[in-house]
Amino acid sequence: MERIVEQAMLYDFYGELLTAHQKEIYGDYVQNDLSPSEIAQDHGITRQAAYDMIRRCNNILEGYEEKLHLLQKFLRTKEMVMMINHHARDILEQESDQEVVEKLKEIEHISNAIIEEY
User: Fold this and answer.
1) Which residues contact 51 (CB under 8 A, 6 or more apart)?
2) pLDDT below 50 — which residues of the chain?
3) Backbone dihedral region of 113: left (phi > 0), alpha (psi from -120 to 50 degrees) or beta?
């Protein structure tokens, strides 16, 4: 997984556990794609302080993931739901029994809703 995507996902999962100041700085970095220099200017701190805060927040969020594995579980669940969705589509293309087709359409609809929710 690309580093910035992973950082953004960690922030989505664990960002509320950061302090308000940490959330502002790290949120600007991962969500608003600001550089440490831009963050420093916006928040009235040095570039080095912004860089240190980003690194510290990243370490904190990675520590939460190492202990809780929520992101890992989410990605694994999403992958399994995508597989269910794929199999349901395959059966829909081959099956002719109307009742089975309707149930599979419902399964596909539910799995799509789960995928879209995350």
Assistant:
1) 36
2) none
3) alpha
